[in-house]
Design brief:
Helices cover 30% and strands 16% of the residues. By secondary structure, the chain is of the alpha/beta class. Among the domains are: 47 residues, ADC-like domains (N-terminal domain of TfIIb), CATH 2.20.25; 204 residues, Dimethylsulfoxide Reductase, domain 2, CATH 3.40.228; 138 residues, Barwin-like endoglucanases (Beta Barrel). Bound molecules: ligand MGD (2 copies), iron/sulfur cluster and molybdenum atom.
């Protein structure tokens, strides 16, 4: 007799792939997904999804996805049990820590850590247990400049003001292409719908980008700008506001520190002074200033093109300065601070006051770059591995990261990785980075673990909370990523104890109990908590029988700003409440939060933080630089290289899914027709050689007047050509790695962030 066909059911889950946090409705039959659509009842995304969300089905079933721990001997990988894998890791890491100290182990955390609960709740525990100064992440090839600016201005690293797109009348976008990226540092699903809504209300959208992007296609006005010069433009807008008496912070005036000093320092940066550098006429700069000042509700929004560039921190600062001076910070239709339900630093502690942020508490060994928020700039990673001496990195742990493709001068990093004495990767794939590991611990399919966006609800354009239980139970011998990470924490914590390791390793559940115990202890001791002075054992009992990330989530929800306070605030949020709302809980539109949200030592908005002002002379010096730069060695075309994203690609790791790589090749060099003609590149598909200080690549061109002359654009995350990987589909759509061209010595000094936009390159035709 045949077994009965499994019944069909619908499961709801939040897509973990990008910052938009779309609600998905999955139709499943047994262990199979039969359909994925946008969940129309989702309180935030209302049915929106993109092609990547639909590809979760392929990710779930990808035969190349690693499902068992792997140990490498030479070039050969062997599946092993979890216990064997952890024993191997202990044998690899512990002696190095004992002999060379904790800094001998480096860590790289990649982007998926901010998209899953293991990264949010357990990775910090691993870093604490390891106690190494050599911590790196994708943040320093991404948004750290913004975090430095807002930390200094508002007091916490995640106090990023978010554009209130659904209520604004004027949106100025720089260096972002939300129609393709679906938004970043602005969680707001369905960007096209939201931007069209703005224009239907009679609002105005202006986009400033070296490329006429899909977002620019939706705009009222698009202006080209020379890569890396947004700070020049924005500071001249600020100067104009002061010069024309248009600086009117309104209600915020009482909460500002440094307004007079600000007016002083921007005075030399007139529109005439900056125009040649940024390529935008003085009259246009003044008009933008007047439009921003005149709009009833306006907001400036900038993203990766303005962060991963020469003046990332200054630009990020100027964006909020403009929102403040036009009275648009912290008001409806301007830029507002979300109030997240879980783990928001600016919603705990004393309202309106804090310690501010401290940067530069230690420095990298080789180049002496300052620490930022507990990590070192990833541009230092290779040199910390390949430069001998005390404190050298001898072992590396990567969790959900692919720095071999994602970070500057990848060839040097690649070489460095191959010399490590020991390396562990926690990853879904055997790829450019994890191929260097000695042990790979697999993570689960995103459909096999619970989900809650701890980070992105702190950056969302509407206050929401949405918990998703696992769609499928994990396979019997699988372990969730949090279990791996907490075991790793235990291994490194005990590494320098000379005694032999205990005969049985503590279980993940035991380690989790200890971690939560410490969290509860801290909370009951905090004077500002709804559970101050309560009995930790009683709180722990109330969380039973949950375990792991769900138990921590329940705990943090309950002590959070909307929480039930373990009975202190009846009717408040608990995980059970979220479970009863599979389409999410709507916590309301963003509300003004100043001064309560501030956590600076002064209790004010710091308009002129010293580390930021210290960077202004560098901006002044750049104003007279020649554009475009002349070619380094005569022949060829001198240009500035920038990056871009594609709707069907996600950084470096989703190129193994057939539905996303089918069709036209996406890894092409976008070049203006005049530039192409000058070096004899006749048609799309012609091969160009692109060379920078660090390397050279060959790539087919795509000729288009969407890009400004003197600038070329190439997406990152490609170049799947290396030996020893297990990504068969990606290998057939390999593309080239743009980070061979990015220079690890080029940084934004206040943040240490890499410069990935505006890289000087020379381009030649390949015959
Ligand atoms: N030139 C240039 N370089 C760039 C950029 C650019 O614009 N231009 N952008 C930068 C930006 S913004 C970012 S965020 C970085 C990204 O840099 P990385 O975070 O280093 O790279 P990703 O491509 O996101 O790789 C994620 C890795 O995690 C694995 N993975 C996926 N899901 C999970 C999971 O749930 N658990 C675990 N353990 N692993 C998982 C994937 O297989 C992959 O190996 O790249 C940066 N690099
Ligand atoms: N489909 C898809 N979505 C993604 C990702 C992905 O890989 N694919 N990655 C996710 C990640 S990790 C991130 S961080 C976000 C990023 O999200 P976004 O910030 O929206 O990133 P991009 O789409 O790369 O848009 C950056 C824009 O900056 C422009 N630009 C480059 N240099 C300059 C400059 O100097 N000045 C100005 N004004 N503009 C410049 C580029 O031409 C480009 O249009 O996207 C996320 N979403
Ligand atoms: S926009 Fe982002 S969150 Fe929404 S479906 Fe696409 S990848 Fe997922
Ligand atoms: Mo990113």
């Amino acid at each position: 007799m045949s077994t009965p066909a499994p019944t069909e059911r619908t499961a709801y889950t939040t897509c973990p792939l990008c910052e938009a946090t779309c609600g998905l409705a999955l139709t499943t039959r047994g262990r199979a997904v039969t359909a994925i659509r946008g969940d129309e009842a989702d309180v935030f995304s209302r049915g929106y999804l993109c092609p990547k969300g639909a590809s979760l089905k392929e990710l779930d079933t990808d035969p190349d996805r690693i499902r068992q721990p792997l140990v490498r001997h030479g070039d050969a990988w062997h599946p092993v049990t979890w216990d064997a894998a952890f024993a191997h890791i202990e044998q690899g890491l512990a002696p190095l820590i004992r002999q060379h100290g904790r800094d001998a182990v480096g860590v790289y955390l990649g982007n998926p850590n901010v998209h899953n609960l293991a990264g949010s709740f357990y990775a910090p525990e691993f870093l604490r247990a390891l106690g190494s100064h050599n911590l790196f992440s994708a943040s320093t090839v991404d948004q750290i400049p913004k975090q430095v600016a807002v930390g200094l201005m508002f007091g916490t690293a995640l106090s990023v003001p978010i554009p209130d797109i659904v209520r604004t009348n004027y949106l100025l976008v720089l260096g972002a292409n939300p129609l393709v990226s679906n938004g970043s540092l602005m969680t707001a699903p369905d960007m096209r719908g939201r931007l069209r809504g703005l224009r239907q209300r009679g609002g105005r959208l202006v986009v400033i980008d070296p490329v006429r992007t899909r977002t620019a296609d939706e705009a009222d006005e698009h202006l080209f700008i020379r890569p890396g010069t947004d700070a020049c433009l924005l500071i001249a807008i600020v100067q104009t506001l002061f010069a024309e008496g248009l600086a009117r912070p309104g209600r915020l005036a009482d909460h500002l520190q440094g307004a007079a000093q600000l007016e002083d320092v921007v005075r030399p940066f007139t529109p005439e002074r900056v125009a040649a550098a940024c390529g935008i006429a003085p009259a246009t700069i003044r008009r933008l200033a007047r439009e921003l000042a005149a709009a009833e509700r306006a907001v400036v929004y900038a993203r990766i093109g303005t962060c991963t560039q020469e003046f990332g921190t200054l630009t990020s600062w100027l964006v909020d300065v403009l929102n403040i001076l036009t009275g648009n910070l912290d008001r409806e239709g301007g830029a507002l601070f979300p109030r997240a339900a879980v783990a928001a630093r600016n919603a705990t502690g004393t309202p309106g006051q804090g310690k501010g942020v401290r940067l530069g508490r230690w420095h990298s060994r080789v180049r002496g770059l300052p620490e930022v928020y507990g990590e070192l700039p990833v541009v230092c990673l290779a040199e910390e591995i390949d430069t001998p001496g005390e404190g050298q990195i001898r072992a590396l742990v990567t969790i959900g990261g692919n720095p071999a493709l994602s970070t500057p001068n990848s060839q040097r990093l690649e070489r460095a990785l191959s010399t490590l004495e020991f390396m562990v990767s926690v990853d879904l794939y055997l790829n450019e980075t994890s191929r260097h590991a000695h042990v790979i611990l697999p993570a689960l399919s995103p459909l096999e673990h619970p989900h809650y966006d701890v980070v992105f609800y702190q950056l969302a354009a509407h206050n929401v909370a949405h918990y998703s239980p696992p769609v499928f139970a994990p396979p019997p011998d699988a372990r969730d990523e949090w279990q791996s990470v907490i075991q790793l924490a235990d291994i490194v914590a005990r590494a320098d104890q000379d005694a032999a390791p205990p005969p049985t390793r503590p279980s993940a559940a035991e380690l989790d109990d200890a971690l939560l115990g410490r969290m509860i202890q801290r909370e009951v001791r905090s004077a500002e908590s709804p559970v101050t002075g309560r009995d930790p054992a009683a709180l722990l009992a109330e969380l039973a029988p949950r375990q792991g990330p769900e138990r921590i989530l329940d705990f943090l929800l309950r002590v959070g700003p909307y929480g039930d306070g373990f009975g202190a605030r009846p009717g408040g949020l608990t995980l059970a409440v979220l479970e009863a709302h599979p389409h999410g809980v709507d916590l309301g539109p963003l509300q003004p939060r100043i001064p309560e949200v501030l956590r600076t030592a002064s209790g004010k908005i710091e308009l002129t933080p010293a580390p930021i002002l210290a960077d202004l002379p560098r901006l002044a010096a750049a104003l007279d630089r020649a554009h475009p730069p002349t070619p380094a060695n005569g022949a060829g075309l001198a240009a500035q290289l920038i990056g871009r994203r594609d709707l069907r690609s996600n950084n470096s790791w989703m190129h193994n899914l057939p539905s996303l790589v089918k069709g036209k090749d996406r890894c092409s060099l976008l070049i203006h027709p005049d530039d192409a003609q000058q070096i004899g590149l006749g048609a799309d598909g012609a091969l160009a050689c692109v060379e920078s200080r660090t390397g050279a690549i060959r790539v087919p061109v795509e000729i288009s007047d969407r890009i400004m002359p003197g600038v070329v654009s190439l997406p990152h995350g490609w170049g799947h050509t290396l030996a020893g990987m297990r990504t068969a589909v990606a290998a057939q759509h390999a593309g080239v790695n743009t980070n061979i061209l990015a220079d690890e010595t080029a940084i934004d000094p206040p943040s240490g962030n890499a410069i990935l936009n505006g890289i000087p390159v020379t381009i030649r035709r390949v015959d």
